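QA checklist item 7 of 12: single-chain prediction sanity check.
[x] sequence parsed
[x] length recorded as 459
[x] structure emitted
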Amino acid sequence: MTFIQLALVFVILVLASGVLGWRRIRIPQLADGVRPRSRAIYHGFYNALWCALPMLLVVAAWLAVEPGIIRPAVLGELAANGALIEENSAFKYVEIKNVAEGVLPSALADKSVLQAVDHYRTLQQQSGIVLTILFITAGLAGLYLGYRRLCHLFPAREKVEGFVRVFLFVSASVAILTTISIVLALAFETLRFFQHVPVMDFLLGTKWSPQVAIRADQVGSSGAFGMVPLFAGTLLIALIAMLVAVPVGLFSAIYLAEYAHPAARSVLKPMLEVLAGIPTVVYGFFAALTVAPMIVDLGHTLGLDASSESALAAGLVVGLMIIPFISSLSDDVINSVPYSLRDGSLAMGATKSETIRKVILPAALPGIAGAILLAVSRAIGETMIVVMAAGLAANLTANPLESVTTVTAQIVTILVGDQEFDSPKTLAAFALGLTLFFVTLALNFIALHVVRKYREQYD
């Protein structure tokens, strides 16, 4: 059975089990007129869950077990023909799958691979038959077991609500477990990196040149893995971006929330938010083809030596890109400030500008701080604009007219193409990612402190 056919069977069985559970309670069973403990709809949901969960468990278990059964059998068929070398077994298996699924033309494969493809297809057909039998059997068994438990006094509502609570808890735990998994994966690879490079050389080194000879016969340098130039470039571009985005975004939000006519607001706010939907590669082209040449010409006019790829060009365009993050969120926060605070300030004789500066903005500061933090994270994580406008030179400089690079740009550069994951060059990407994670975590703690401090004053 194909996936669509299995999905169709799943829907039919679940709907049928739900209807049967509903009808079991709708039909009177007790002659003394005792009312059911739960509504009939909950009995239907309960029976449908008993039917659905076993089928989903069968599919999940089969997807986990099937590759471990088919792969050894296919490779064994290839080995029996004397066409398997242990070193390229993974490559051969991928080739067999691609030919069997039509990704690669069979004319390009040799005879042994074609025989293995036939064996692979046979095993897939047998696997599909077994899965279909187990799938339908599990659904019918679950339907029967759930149907037997239903009666007028059965607490179906409590059971269904308990399942919903468990489902919501698991859903909420996904984000936490994902974060923990990411940190553990980064930490494991980072520890491998520090087996090749001393920790202090990485944290305090001022030179970044990760070109390392991967093979013994390859000409290459010994490599330098100091992260200071990368984080200096990241912070320089983020600082320039925030100097552009924070004033423009915040003043735009104040105007839209407090001064703009409703007709003007209905036009200006969507136009401003369009900036958030523009792809970053478009911003990168704009930075490389328009902003960077303008900065070079301006620098020559002022007698300054400006590089064609500079932190200033990247920072200005990144700041332009994140204006909607600050403007839109700050606008929503300012509008959420209770009107009683505005009315009380105006009643005391304060002007509109004084009310905004001394009442509304302090009350909205927690939300504004959150918007700025989101914008900072967006600026730190930007890659495409940096690659196209700032370059990849790891220069330790505070001059915005020079070329710099960022942590994310280097991570992308390192992991592009074929890589050897035992090389310090490749492992350096994980060390940079873990360090960047802790930097953003520190920013989150600072913002959380600011939010709590001012929220206590205005609750």
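[x] summary fact logged: The chain has a mean pLDDT of 83.
[ ] second reviewer sign-off
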